[in-house]
Amino acid sequence: MKYDVLFYKSRKTSYCEKALKSRLSTIDMSANRVIASVAPTKLGETLCESLTLCNCVVIIGGFSANDSENLITVLSRAMSNSGLSLKNCRKLKGAIYDAYIIKYNKQIILALPDNPEEIDFLLSDSFLEYLKSVYI
């Protein structure tokens, strides 16, 4: 299965991309596109476009941005505008940072921190098995 990677106000992008690719390749997932965005409106446009191309979109970064541009704030606004609710969202507890999963029908958005070690931790074998069972 293909996925898009959206870097949003992210650091360590090449390390994060390498960690993501390493973990997701174990379940035969590969990147379709890798795109960077620094503005919430651009992120929204890119996310909508990506969801028309792939059932899985991974957003990396944006957790430490200021309040109005923080990824969680941006995703919360998008969810409320699209009719999604908290039942569509799940929090993954990380060692240092948390991650979020937004699932709607057969599509999933993974919001991950821009920390390669944390990506390895969050994309555990059990989570990858879940992802594989649902999407592959």
Key attributes of the depicted protein:
136 residues, alpha/beta, globular
Structure write-up:
- The protein is built from five helices and six strands, in the order βαβαβαβββαα.
- The protein is 41% helix and 26% strand.
- It is α/β, with parallel strands linked by helices and 136 residues long.
- A six-stranded mixed β-sheet has the order 2-1-3-6-5-4, sandwiched between helices.
- The protein has a single domain (2-135), classed as Molybdenum Cofactor Biosythetic Enzyme, Chain A (3-Layer(aba) Sandwich), CATH 3.40.980.10.
Cα distance spanning the termini: 6 Å
Number of helical stretches of at least 4 residues: 5
Shape: globular
Helical content stands at 40-55%
Measured by DSSP, the beta-strand proportion falls in 25-35%
Annotated CATH architecture: 3-Layer(aba) Sandwich
Largest sheet entry: 6 strands, mixed
- Order of strands side by side in the largest beta sheet? 2-1-3-6-5-4
**Which superfamily, in CATH terms, is the homologous superfamily?**
MoaB/Mog-like domain
Mean pLDDT: 89
CATH class: Alpha Beta
Total beta strand runs: 6
CATH topology: Molybdenum Cofactor Biosythetic Enzyme, Chain A
